[in-house]
Write a structure and sequence with these properties.
This protein is mainly alpha-helical. 68% of the residues lie in helices and 4% in strands. The strands form two sheets. Strands 1-2-3 form a three-stranded antiparallel sheet, with no helix packed on it. It has a two-stranded antiparallel sheet with strand order 4-5. It is globular.
């Protein structure tokens, strides 16, 4: 007689003491990253046959694919889908084991963030795509987005590393896609070398963890690290530390942040926006997975380390942003880059707090990431608009923007105030308060003080830039005699990106508790 045992994502049969290892695949669970990857291949092939004047269609296909992937998150909203699980025969217990892919609430929230970020990046890029090889650009963007969408659902270290590299490798090429541009090539090289070192360190840590536990699944690693033999404890600790160092590179945590300013300045602005939001989301989601799910037994190791990294990162980023010269070429992008480093420090605080109290503080990191993604993409969109008339993209170029483009200036002021955590950017204020509360609740009073000091430091350069938007433009005698400058036509896609981010930011500021509740659900 043959009996069948059905478990989520697994099909096993038992007959005469033999068990099949054949697994079924939950295609709905893996649909979002698979759809993005499939559209990437379609774009790559279509590029071979489309004439140059019709390459614009590839951008619309890219956006349609990202919208479809976002739509596929809706039927997964219950957060109860897993696949690629260990079978009963593999575990030897008669019950199904750990899964390599889990579409829980945490995965869905981060997937929505990265796919939405990639969609806005595509919207930003439509107006400037003529300067880049279209087929390669859209293919690389989609490839990176598919890896970014896969990573938060990964539940074993092998899938985690593969997803991380799938998100990173196309990003190197995107940074250096401006052919013949020395700055772009140099930025891509720095980004590539730093990421390769990070990956090597991470893989060494993963190998130590595997040698200690004999498994790659995160939940099983957590169980086995609870009872590590004394002679392997040092090896396990080294594995945990090296794995975290690898993720510290990816999240731009100081002192592993050195690649950020030059990479953002050398990359096309849409790519810099993508790295600042999606790249950061990828790094932090991976860091959350390994610390909270895989390494809770070593919270006494990674908790203090992440707390120190958070303090160092926010301080380094804010002090460097404070020192930016408003008349230096590309100072606006460089300031946004250093601001991004500082924001990474804030994002690290709730993860560090999770080592001292409950995992619910992770919701604060997710909420902060959602807020940051919206307003930072909006700020980069305005920077892309200003760069069309002022290629130097200096902070001084924004002086008097209200006189020429009042709505754009108001949107930029709103984005900067959100990043600073000041009204009317209420969502930014709420996000900072939740991060501050996480540090206080975890007993990290010193870290809360460091964060408060850094918030005050950041106010200076954010408000200085905001004030410049509304100052009268500088005029000289020659300027007074010259005719009024010609207004350049702004691509509709760029206008739509600014408007969309501004509207979402305003809506969230009107109901900030919405994003906080959304991120504070049972993530795991």
């Amino acid at each position: 007689m043959t009996t069948a045992v059905v478990t989520p994502g697994v099909v096993t049969t038992a007959a005469d003491s033999t068990t099949s290892l054949v697994q079924s695949v939950d295609w709905l669970a893996i649909a979002p990253p698979v759809v993005v990857a499939a559209v990437a291949l379609i774009v790559l092939v279509a590029d071979l046959f489309l004439p140059a004047e019709r390459k614009q269609l590839l951008g619309w296909v890219t956006m349609a694919g990202l919208v479809a992937a976002l739509a596929l998150l809706v039927p997964l909203r219950d957060g109860d889908h897993s696949t690629f699980c260990l079978t009963a025969a593999t575990t030897g217990t008669g019950a199904p084991g750990a899964c390599s892919y889990t579409a829980d609430h945490f995965a869905l929230v981060i997937q929505a963030l990265v796919l939405g970020g990639a969609l806005l990046t595509a919207l930003l890029s439509l107006g400037d795509i003529r300067r880049f090889p279209a087929g390669e650009f859209w293919f690389l963007l989609l490839s990176s987005a598919s890896g970014a969408a896969l990573l938060p659902a990964a539940r074993d270290l092998a899938t985690l590393v593969v997803a991380l590299e799938l998100a990173s490798l196309p990003a190197f090429a995107l940074v250096g896609i401006k052919r013949g541009d020395r700055r772009s090539s140099e930025a891509a090289l720095k980004f590539f070398l730093s990421s390769v070192v990070a990956t090597a360190v991470m893989l060494l840590g993963v190998s130590f963890v595997y040698a200690t536990t004999g498994t790659l699944h995160l939940t099983e690693i957590a169980a086995r690290l609870d009872d590590v033999p004394g002679q392997l404890d040092t090896l396990a600790q080294a594995g945990v530390v090296l794995t975290l160092v690898g993720f510290a590179f990816k999240t731009a945590a100081a002192p592993f942040h050195f690649w950020v300013p030059d990479t953002y300045v050398g990359a096309p602005l849409p790519v810099a926006a993508y790295l600042s939001v999606v790249g950061k989301a990828v790094g932090f989601s991976g860091l959350i997975l390994v610390t909270v799910i895989a390494f809770p037994a070593y919270a006494d190791v990674w908790g203090p380390a992440l707390a120190v990294l958070a303090a160092l990162t926010m301080t380094t980023g804010n002090v460097a942003a404070l020192r930016q010269n408003a008349t230096r070429a590309r100072s606006a992008v460089r300031l946004l880059a250093w601001s991004s480093v500082a924001q990474a420090g804030y994002l690290l605080v709730p993860i560090a707090a999770a080592a001292y109290s409950s995992d619910e503080h992770i919701g604060s990191t997710v909420a902060y990431a959602l807020m940051y993604a919206v307003v930072n993409l909006g700020a980069f969109a305005v920077a892309a608009l200003v760069a069309r008339t002022n290629p130097g993209n200096r902070i001084s170029d924004y002086r008097g923007l209200y006189a020429t483009r009042p709505l754009t200036a108001l949107a930029m002021a709103f984005f900067l105030l959100c990043l600073a955590g000041l009204p009317p950017g209420i969502v930014g204020l709420f996000a900072k308060v939740t991060v501050f509360s996480a540090a206080v609740d975890a007993g990290l009073g010193w870290l809360a003080v460091v964060m408060a000091v850094n918030v005050v430091i950041a106010l200076y350069y954010y408000l200085q830039w905001t004030a410049a938007l509304f100052r009268a433009p500088e005029e000289t005698a020659a300027d007074e005699a010259a005719p009024a400058p010609t207004r350049h036509r702004v691509p509709a896609s760029l206008t739509a990106a600014i408007a969309l981010t501004a509207v979402v930011g305003v809506v969230l500021s009107g109901a900030p508790q919405t994003v906080l509740r959304f991120a504070a659900v049972n993530l795991f």
